[in-house]
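Worked example 4.2. Below are the chains of a multi-component assembly; read each line carefully before continuing.
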Amino acid sequence: MKNWVKILGICLLLYVHTAGLLAEVPRLNILNETVRALYFHVPMWFGMTFLFTMSVYYAVRYLRNPSPELDRKVLEYANVGTVFGILGIFTGMLWANYTWGSPWHGDPKQNGAAIALLVYLAYFVLRGSLDNQEQRARLSAVYNIFAFAAMIPLIFVIPRMTSSMHPGSGGNPGFNAYELDYRMRMVFYPAVAGWILIGLWITSLRIRLKTVEETIIDIEDEK
Amino acid sequence: MKNKLLTTLLSLFIILTAQAQADVEMADTMRSEGKIYVVVGIILIILIGLIVYLVLMDRKVSRLEKQLSDRQR
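Applying the procedure described above to all two chains together yields the following structure tokens:
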């Protein structure tokens, strides 16, 4: 990963954490000042979706042309993506507690996100339960594709077909009135980009570390 | 005539919504006292700290990679 990409990511996050608290936001009932949570809660889900998409991309590439290198990428993208998802769930619960009245509201999107995360957690359980390296890589790559295919409708389709308290639900695609506010876009889009770049950075670091680890194991085996 | 009525109604609507927006309770006092900068400062310190930690880890992994490739040769 190029250095300027990392610096860009850092600058975007510094901007977002300053402007996110200081910039003007629309005055809305119930949400009040908590509308700013949008800058921090939603980018977690964008980051997670992006990282899971990368993971499934490498899973498909692995199945077409198996190599341990690709398997490492599938694993680490899923790993960091799950961390983003867990942060998204917890920030969402805190936000929901003050705007919806309780941390877990049985909202379709909230339930869907939780199920999607459980599906991805099962991916790690599957990996942990297989000893043969090649078998583990192949089966988990197949499972990764299924997990992705379950995650997309759970988070992006089903909540829009029913009534959800999340914006953009109940048939309205995309963002609703307060997200359309241009003042919020100025912070929200950089936040999404910044967190995606930082997510990529952390993932690249984990992949490199895993490569070093496996190279050492290979050297030990040769001895 | 019809146009005039429309403009009046529209301006009335705009005034009403503007007033309704001003009524919504926000952390205006905190902002006017300047205490919001304390919060921004604290958040930035944590963020910068975590980023520095990430940079250090990045350098450590680079060092490990170099050591390993040196030994393999």
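Take a moment to check your reading of the output against the notes. Chain B has three helices and no strands. Residues 2-72 of chain B form one domain.
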